[in-house]
Amino acid sequence: MTLTVFIFMIGSAGCNSKKQDDTTPPGTTISRTFFGLMPDGDSTYLYTLTSPGDITMKITNYGGIITEILAPDTKGELDNIALGFDNLKQYLAGHPNFGALIGRFANRIAKGSFTLDGKTYTLAINNGNNTLHGGVIGFDDVLWDAAIIETENGEALELEYTSVDMEEGYPGNVNVTVLYELTGNELHISYHAVTDKATPINLTNHTYFNLAGGGTILDHRLALNASAYTPVNKELIPTGEIAPVDDTPFDFRESHTIGKRIDQTAGGYDHNFVLDKKPGELALAARLEDPGSGRILEVETTQPGIQVYSGNFLDGSLKSGDFVYEKHSGICLETQHFPDSPNQPDFPDTILRPGEEFTSKTIYRFTTAGEKKAD
Question: Which domain, by its residues, includes 346?
């Protein structure tokens, strides 16, 4: 598979912390608070990342979930721009992957089955006839080991999890490390995985963004660096075709409001876009803007694709405070390899083998209209 080398510090498992000395320039700081007990009695924690800029976010080691992102608008007023909850109980009661780390394989695998090196593997089925986001208990539903580590930009949160052989039907013992770094107005997410058996790997983060802090995202403007996408069948499984976006509602090469052509899709956007870039290159993938608040989100990634999901299955049954999560209340911009890749020979390879390393990096940059990107 195509690999992008990204080297970062590995901390020990658990909840360790290393503090900066007095000569270190001020950078991001992280505090930890108790978040709740798992059904088996294990403790979960909430980590608050505060940067020298105006961005603050909270992450729990349950599912690696980003629970909150506070970002300023053009007037400097802060709003939470990420859908989620302020308590563990609501997450444990069930939710559509709000803010979570996704694996072992993000997105769908048709009929929960694939053949690798002549052997057919049967996965846990959890989405109609198919496997979605790793299965019944994916990486979004496990407790990660957490460590606060020191970097040149201050403190960062490192999460580690070992997925055992045949967990949810996937072969191999896979060790996964994810690093969350809040650097000024940028969130850097770096993924690393190794295995002792050949296995499919596709890791992402499933944050739902609403740059207005409420309402729907239909008035948000979206631009994508993608001249092709992967069409899907009625079960949202790719047909195997890589199709041009020309003259379709999937053409976001120029910025459009999300709601402008959404009625021309089958219920909304839930599609993988093929990014116009070299394999492994860290490049701009998407730009999302809320004209009302002036907030802007730019997404860079080394991954070949990005899943745009417009919150089509939100139905008002979940809420946080006064914000009721109705249909299209949030949009996901999930950097990834393509869905169902283990069954699609023409898609980029997702098989990780012993002796190889899977690495990828995604950057979420938060700015406002008129604000210049830092050099």
Answer: 29-368
